[in-house]
C-alpha cells in the first residue's frame, strides 16, 4: 500500500539557492502538484530564506504556464475535480487569515473550471492547514526556520512519511539529516527521486512494503528456512 505523504522540502543556509529553486519547481509543480511525492511544506533556513522566496517566485512567474495540456508551452493543467480546487482555496484562505503573505497566485485561474494559479505563500506557520494537510495542488507554502534541529522537528511532525527532500552543501549535515528524516525516500540536492531501480515506499501511515528495486519482489515471495544436519 502507498497512502500518500506530506513531503517536506528543506533548504539549509549552505544550499546552492539556484539548485534548490530548480528542485523545488520540479518537485512541487509536476502534474500541478498532484503526485504523492510532491513537496508540500517548504522549510527554509533564515539566512537563505529571502533569496529563495524571491528566486522561486521569479521562476514560477517565468516558467509556469497554465492551460490546455495539448497546447505547446503549457506546463500546468487542471486539478482533478472541483473538490480538489476547493481544498487548495481552503488552504490558501486559512493561511492568509492566520498571517501568511501571498507572494504570487492565490486564486482560481482565469480559464475557470478546475484551473488554479500556481501559488507561493511566505510567513507560513505550523498551525496552518497547508502545513498539516497534504494540499495535492499547486501551492508552495514556505516556513522559515533557524536551526537544523528545528527543521527536523517540523519535518517529522506528521503521521505520514513518504518522501522528503533537502538541499545542503555540508557533507556532515547531509548524513545527519538523511538519517533523521522520518520518510521512506530522501532526495538530497535532488527534486525528483523516483526510478524503477529504487525502492519506492514510505513509513508511518504512508503505507507498508516497497515497489521497485529488488525489494519490490519481496511481497510475492515466500521465505523457506532449511535446517540441515546429520551428514
Key words describing this protein structure:
6 helices, Aldehyde Dehydrogenase, Chain A, domain 2, two-stranded antiparallel sheet, 231 residues
Report on the architecture of this protein:
This protein has 231 residues and is α/β, with parallel strands linked by helices. It has a seven-stranded mixed beta sheet, with helices on both faces. A two-stranded antiparallel ribbon has the order 6-9. The protein is globular, with a radius of gyration of 19 Å. The longest helix is centred in the N-terminal third of the chain and has 18 residues, at 46-63. The model has no long low-confidence stretch (mean pLDDT 96). Helix 1 packs across helix 2. Helices cover 30% and strands 16% of the residues. It has one domain (8-220): 3-Layer(aba) Sandwich (Aldehyde Dehydrogenase, Chain A, domain 2), CATH 3.40.309.10. It has six helices and nine strands; from the N terminus they run βαβααββαβαββαββ. It has helices at 17-29, 46-63, 82-97, 129-132, 148-156, 171-180; strands at residues 8-11, 41-45, 101-104, 119-122, 139-145, 160-161, 163-167, 185-188, 203-204.
Describe the SSE topology.
Blueprint: E1 8-11, H1 17-29, E2 41-45, H2 46-63, H3 82-97, E3 101-104, E4 119-122, H4 129-132, E5 139-145, H5 148-156, E6 160-161, E7 163-167, H6 171-180, E8 185-188, E9 203-204
Parallel strand pairs: 1-2, 1-7, 2-5, 4-5, 7-8
Antiparallel strand pairs: 3-4, 6-9
Helix pairs in contact: 1-2
Mean residue pLDDT = 96
Helical stretch tally: 6
Low-confidence spans: pLDDT under 50, at least 5 residues? none
Which H/E pattern describes the elements?
EHEHHEEHEHEEHEE
> How can the largest sheet be summarized?
7 strands, mixed
CATH architecture: 3-Layer(aba) Sandwich
- The amount of beta strand, in percent, is 15-25%
CATH class: Alpha Beta
State the total count of DSSP E strands: 9
**Structural class estimated from helices and strands:** alpha/beta
* First and last CA, distance: 45 Å
CATH superfamily: Aldehyde Dehydrogenase, Chain A, domain 2
| Overall body shape | globular
CATH topology category name: Aldehyde Dehydrogenase, Chain A, domain 2
Helical content stands at 25-40%
Amino acid at each position: 500500500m502507498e497512502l500518500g505523504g506530506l513531503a517536506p522540502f528543506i533548504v539549509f543556509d549552505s544550499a546552492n539557492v539556484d539548485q534548490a529553486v530548480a528542485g523545488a519547481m520540479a518537485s512541487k509543480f509536476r502534474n500541478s502538484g498532484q503526485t504523492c511525492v510532491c513537496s508540500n511544506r517548504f522549510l527554509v533556513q533564515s539566512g537563505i530564506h529571502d533569496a529563495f522566496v524571491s528566486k522561486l517566485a521569479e521562476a514560477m512567474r517565468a516558467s509556469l504556464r497554465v492551460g490546455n495540456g495539448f497546447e505547446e508551452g503549457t506546463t500546468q493543467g487542471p486539478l482533478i475535480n472541483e473538490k480538489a480546487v476547493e481544498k487548495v482555496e481552503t488552504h490558501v484562505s486559512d493561511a492568509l487569515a492566520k498571517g501568511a503573505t501571498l507572494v504570487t497566485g492565490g486564486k482560481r485561474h482565469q480559464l475557470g473550471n478546475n484551473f488554479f494559479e500556481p501559488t507561493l505563500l511566505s510567513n507560513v506557520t505550523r498551525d496552518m492547514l497547508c502545513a498539516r494537510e497534504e494540499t495535492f495542488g499547486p501551492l508552495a507554502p514556505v516556513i522559515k526556520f533557524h536551526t537544523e534541529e528545528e527543521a527536523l522537528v517540523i519535518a517529522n511532525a506528521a503521521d505520514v512519511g513518504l518522501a522528503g527532500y533537502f538541499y545542503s552543501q555540508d557533507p556532515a549535515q547531509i548524513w545527519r539529516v538523511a538519517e533523521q528524516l522520518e520518510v521512506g525516500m530522501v532526495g538530497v540536492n535532488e527534486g525528483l527521486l523516483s526510478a524503477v531501480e529504487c525502492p519506492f515506499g514510505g513509513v508511518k501511515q504512508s503505507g507498508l512494503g516497497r515497489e521497485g528495486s529488488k525489494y519490490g519482489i519481496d511481497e510475492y515471495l515466500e521465505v523457506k528456512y532449511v535446517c540441515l544436519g546429520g551428514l
